[in-house]
Structure prediction request, 608 residues.
Amino acid sequence: MTDETRLSARGLVKRYGQVTALDGADFDLRAGEVLAVIGDNGAGKTTLIKALTGAITPDAGLITLDGRRVRFRTPLDARRAGIETVYQELALAPALDIPTNMFLGRELRRKGVLGSVFRMLDKPRMRAEAARHMAELQIGLRSLSSAVENLSGGQRQGVAVARAAAWARHVVIMDEPTAALGVRESAQVLDLIGRVRDRGLPVVLISHNMPHVFEIADRIHIQRLGRRVALVGKDDYSMPEVVAIMTGALRVEDSAAVVVDEAAAEAAGVADR
Amino acid sequence: MTSSIKMAPPEPMSTAGPSAWGRLLNFSTLGPLAALVLACVYFSLQTDRFLTGPNFSLILQQVMVVGTLAIGQTLVILTAGIDLSNGAIMGFGSIVMTKFAVDGGMPPLVAILLGIAVCGAFGLANGMLVTRIKLPPFIVTLGMLNIAFALTHIYSNEETITKLPPMLTALGRTFDIGGTRVTYGTLVAIGMFLVFAFVLSQTAWGRRVYATGNNPEATRLTGVPTRRILLSVYTVAGLVYGVAALLLVARTGVGDPKAGQTENLESITAVVIGGTSLFGGRGAVLGTLIGALIVGVFRNGLQLTGVQPIYQILITGVLVILAVAVDQISRRRNR
Prediction:
């Protein structure tokens, strides 16, 4: 793992009328890490991720990818720049099979006249490539030709993650990938996230689930009131402390936690630090 | 043993039980095909006039205009839309091509191409209204049905156009296959079915049409320009209606302003009986061919066995409801 920064943002601002969703938010993602983004509802984590993936355009601030300034106007811009997103609502076409879903929008055509004149798809090659991507992430399936709707929730998440990992050149962003899954399937998906990282792709993980965050993340970005209030290593603070920072009971100053709200800190069980 | 957990569950895939049934039902053209074969067997046993070359040629001729319209209808329904205007667009197209050739004195080929282009323009207009103003396809095509119907009557002055140049009716001519006369129009229609079967299953555009109908938001998020896909679907459908207009003119030998008034619902019937889901993203154009043939075979067979025409309509109604019910139930099993 290196300290090289892949994706970063400085001073992002986004206002919706009277509401300030982002109030000078910063963001930093290093090569080869899993960065968890946590924050209460309304802390601006969704808006932050939308800005990083081109779903919205920030009013102010700048985003850099591998040191170069980027401006994403649409999600397609971000995708072209090598940032792939796994959406919470699983952006798959349920009636279609795995290779079709994996190559949707990036279909491979046959070589020669069949491809150039008759626009014929190279189904065998798409199938083989899909099988290879699934195998690389150790996602085992009985059949690639079954419709996605016939898969379990975890397997579907696996297809979505494999698609993102297959196309992402720089970053994979996952929005609550375990939210709809049971215990066992969540464990499988967390494992999958680790394998994506081990292949060298940094992963941004948005999650409400603290145990999942602490299990898989290398660093934790804590978002509060439209800003990043802390960027901490997983082992720097305990889970209750991180939650206390998220809710504003603790504040991080000079990499030490300071109690802001005694009662709240006590309630969170972190008062005697 | 590795520390990583494999995604493959040791037990069979959770849907393996019900999906044996579900997959069979979901294999959308298999059911309609079985129904078609059963209907043919039944009518062959009822009357020996049914299973003859000339009778089948007749069924094909009767079915092909609606069948061609139903190709365009299939495209639209695959995107979870519906097209009520296709019969009226075809009617207007047939008046345009015949009037341009007869009254306008244009070369027949030019008149034909302009007629098809006018139908394509109607499709484009449907597509623009659906994608730009985001009106529901039902409303857009209902409006377009009335507009095309009115234009047909205004432009034709309610007069049937006769004395067509031979080229306009060329597809009504026949050739011989083993003693049976088959029209060239039948060949054109079957060729169109094969072309669209290929395009829908073997090209990126085809897969994107399915994906757009199946989950538009997910498809958009993968970077597919879904609005452009929709626009192209309505435009291509319009052009297909133009070909149907030519087949209609060739079959009837005139430009008839009263044509095309019931074909919209008949084409939807063929699509639905053929196993394509009204919810979009599921189905096949060859199913539509089978659906059109089922309607044609029932109509013909009941006629030959002396059943009153009104019962043909009754049975068609039952078939439509049955087809949609099978679609619903098979999808519920797959959940």
